[in-house]
Predict the 3D structure of the following.
Amino acid sequence: MTPADTTITVLGAGYVGLTTAALLAHAGYTVYALEPNPERLDVIKQGKSFFFEEGLDAIIKAALDRGTLIPTDSYADSVPRSHIVFSSVGTPDNPDGSSNLTYVFAAAREAAAHLAPGSIYVQKSTVPVGTGTRIEAVFTELGASIHYVSNPEFLREGTALHDTLYFDRVVAGGNDSQAVDEVLAVYRQLETWRDTIATAAGIKPTTQTGQYISTSLNSAELIKVTANAFLALKISFANSIAKLSDEVGADIVDVMDAVGADKRIGRAFLQAGRGYGGGCFPKDVSGLIASGLDHGVELEIMHAAQAVNSSMPGYIVEKLLTSCDGNLSGKKVAVLGLAFKAGTSDVRRSPGIALANTILRTGAQVTTYDPQALGEAEEKLHDGIVQFDSLEKAIAGVDVVIIATEWPEIIHYSAQRYAEAMQGTLFVDAINHFDIATVQQAGLRYIGVGR
Ligand code: UDX
Ligand code: UDX
């Protein structure tokens, strides 16, 4: 089949689904983006995304204008016309840490009722290993002759378009090798268009060449969570050593620069600081632990990664308290950066928000600022925390500044300017970005994590 006669439906136009749909709509395919949430759907119909992602709005708008991207909330209008259906519905975590698969199964059942025999159902949502086999059983029970392929997603928010176009690897796994090849062919097609799409989105093309990996269903499912769990493990490892660095007077940044220079280890994801957040790492780590338990395997190492991560906001607040004789009561503290990382408005499991809420409990007055996440942060911040719409307003006259997210606007603001705007001198660099000497020369007391 050629792209011109292949229609695709993407179920769930969230961070992953909307990015995927918009990109494929520029690679020669006609793509339905199915989104049941009416507010989200409305925003997409206006040619925008409901979250901030560099370059995404431009390509959504262009694809809508061309008619290759069709937002809808109807399975009946979209799925029967589609040869391939990607599912990227949400997988929230259950209170016990396992993944809630209600939406995953509901979407599969609904799609099965509409899919033509021989169609391909591609799972992009992160699901525990074994889920694909269970969905195949549902298809069989419904008498639907559909090929199931697991195609895990590796895009990072903030660089979602770049990561999808200039990927390290595309993984597809399933029991029908032809269906697996057809899914990989969609990405090969996307690759032929990638520089054109990148230019339209305002993203810099690169010469990155990635791998296409076809494998079994269970392996594909395990690859995704294992990759994320390993990255989370690297971060927690760096944070453990950061605590030791604090005790022995070493600098974790120097330590990890040198450790990471070993090609067998690599420097990526060894940045110590306030820990990881977001819609993936916390959930994937707890999901992997739950999967292990389901099969009688205790993944002790992941429990440790999780425990280190949840300790980090409290650890940083303790360090700050030690610098103020244990008392922050009445002090003015500005927390800068509420998104779980730069380049996104996403505040799911955000360490910046954990820091702000923890500091509020010490009796401090907390102000905050984020270039994109103010709206989304509102309901997660405890009552009494004041959000400002500019960096300058948030830091004016404060005793303490806490750098929680590496937004360019926040990290390129010079130490000198922070010092001039503040009334106090405590500068908490919870992402270990700033040069210690420069901060000290500006008259501030530098507090890092493991420095
Ligand atoms: C995705 C994956 O689904 C998740 O498993 C992975 O770990 C990260 O990427 P994400 O795109 O971040 O999740 O989730 P979200 O932004 O919540 O998007 C999911 C979308 O699916 C929402 O817009 C939601 O309205 C929609 N949805 C929900 C459906 O389409 N059908 C449903 O039954 C429920
Ligand atoms: C992650 C994976 O990287 C991606 O492959 C997968 O598809 C989805 O989950 P994402 O959650 O968007 O992507 O962000 P990522 O850049 O991986 O960062 C996750 C968290 O770890 C952020 O809070 C970030 O600030 C933190 N982090 C990252 C560190 O604390 N230290 C590091 O060295 C790197």
